[in-house]
Amino acid sequence: MYYKLNGVTQRLAGSSPGAYNPQGLRVTVPSEAPPMIFATPTKYVSEAGNTGEYLGRNKVPDLQKLFQKADGIPVHLKGGLMDKMLYRTTMGLTIGGTLYCLMALYIASQPRK
Q1: Count of Cβ atoms closer than 10 Å to residue 96 Cβ
Q2: Is 4 helix (H, G, I), strand (E, B) or coil?
Q3: Adjacent-strand bridge partners of 9
Q4: What would the pLDDT profile of 46-100 be if each residue is shown by its tens digit?
Q5: Taking the chain, what is the end-to-end CA distance rounded to the nearest angstrom?
Q6: Measuring CA to CA, which of 12, 30, 31, 69 is 20 to 30 A from 89?
Q7: CA 59 to each of CA 50, 64, 79: distance values in angstroms, whole numbers, following the listed order
Q8: Do 83 and 74 contact (CB within 8 A), yes or no?
Q9: For the segment 17-36, what is each residue's pLDDT rounded down to a tens digit?
Q10: DSSP state of 92
Q11: Are residues 67 and 83 in contact, defined by beta-carbon separation less than 8 angstroms?
Q12: Residue 32 φ/ψ, nearest 5 degrees
């Protein structure tokens, strides 16, 4: 089996003409560092330390209590009025679109006069 690598045709030792012997990638180390794209070097997370703190309140425990409450309401409606409006709008558009598609199929199935 012959391979062309860097302009030189080579034959692998011990390979039969139909065998699959992939060439590995050759590791190259650049002789010089690439130019910097940004003006300041990138800092790793471990080097940066605690650069800023979140000044807000953690709302996760409150939301967990709201959504995990066993009150019989589906989870997608527990958000209040906006969730109910979004749900009803989505269901209305879905039912309306289904009826429109069925009507279009019925009209398309009728022979032309």
Answers
A1: 10
A2: strand
A3: 4
A4: 665 565 666 788 889 998 998 898 988 888 888 889 999 999 999 999 999 999 9
A5: 70
A6: 69
A7: 21, 9, 14
A8: no
A9: 556 656 666 667 777 877 77
A10: H
A11: no
A12: -135, 155
Burial class (CB in 10 A: 0-12, 13-18, 19+), 105: exposed
Q: CA gyration radius for the chain?
A: 33
Query: Between these two residues, 80 and 10, which has the higher pLDDT value?
Result: 80
Distance CA 95, CA 112 (A): 28
Residue 3 in tokens = 């391979």
- Using an 8 Å Cβ cutoff, are 21 and 1 in contact? yes
* Global confidence as pTM: 0.45
* Residue 84 CB neighbour total at 10 angstroms: 14
Cα angle 89-95-75, degrees, rounded to a multiple of 5:
50
User: Residue 112 — very low, low, confident or very high, per pLDDT cuts 50/70/90?
Assistant: confident
